[in-house]
TrEMBL record:
The lineage of its organism: Bacteria, Pseudomonadati, Thermodesulfobacteriota, Thermodesulfobacteria, Thermodesulfobacteriales. It comes from Caldimicrobium thiodismutans. This is Peptidase. Belongs to the peptidase C56 family. PANTHER family: DJ-1 PROTEIN (PTHR42733), DJ-1_THIJ_PFPI FAMILY PROTEIN (PTHR42733:SF2). CDD domains: GATase1_PfpI_like. InterPro entries: C56_PfpI-like (IPR006286), Class_I_gatase-like (IPR029062), DJ-1/PfpI (IPR002818). It holds the Pfam family DJ-1_PfpI. Residues 1-162 form the DJ-1/PfpI domain. It comes from the Bacteria.
């Protein structure tokens, strides 16, 4: 099984690192993609190696997509290639996990209208404006999309995301 994490500088460190290691524990090969290869730096100073540029990503090769939060989604949601990748996962019915500000990418991809979702509290209004049914709870699973609010929700987020992929 293969998982893809898409992020950029200023990601929320725990929201990338916790799922990264948890997925490896479950036997996934995990790739991290960003605007360019090299390294990205989190809000709290952690650096993570990026082994793929967005242009190198082939969504067909992956079973799961993860979109960590922090400030990175604000940058990524403006990138046409990111939106194309996210839509490809969605169309293929593959699980997509988005936490904190990660759902902003799903909003920009046009995937949340009429769907239940959660996010960090400062994104809630934007979710509602996009036509999503906002729920203020640890994790919300709607079809192949799993959303969560913040770092303290990570255990619930990963448990639910992993249960979706095992179906």
């Amino acid at each position: 099984m293969k998982a893809l994490i898409i992020s950029a500088d200023n990601f929320e460190d725990t929201e990338l690192l916790y799922p990264f290691y948890r997925l490896i524990e479950e036997g996934f090969q995990v790739d991290i993609a960003s605007l360019v290869r090299g390294k990205i730096k989190g809000k709290h100073g952690y650096t993570v190696p990026v082994n793929l540029s967005l242009e190198e990503v082939n969504p067909e090769e992956y079973d799961l997509l993860l979109l960590p939060g922090g400030k990175a989604p604000e940058t990524l949601r403006k990138n046409a290639r990111v939106l194309e990748i996210v839509r490809a996962f969605y169309s293929a019915g593959k699980p997509i996990g988005a936490i904190c500000h990660g759902p902003q990418i799903l909003i920009s991809a046009g995937l949340l209208k009429g769907k239940r979702a959660t996010s960090y509290k400062s994104v809630a209004k934007e979710l509602l404006e996009a036509g999503a049914k906002y729920e203020d709870k640890e994790v919300v699973a709607e079809g192949n999309i799993v959303t969560s609010r913040m770092p303290s929700d990570l255990p619930y987020f990963m448990k639910t995301l992993l249960s979706v992929i095992k179906k």
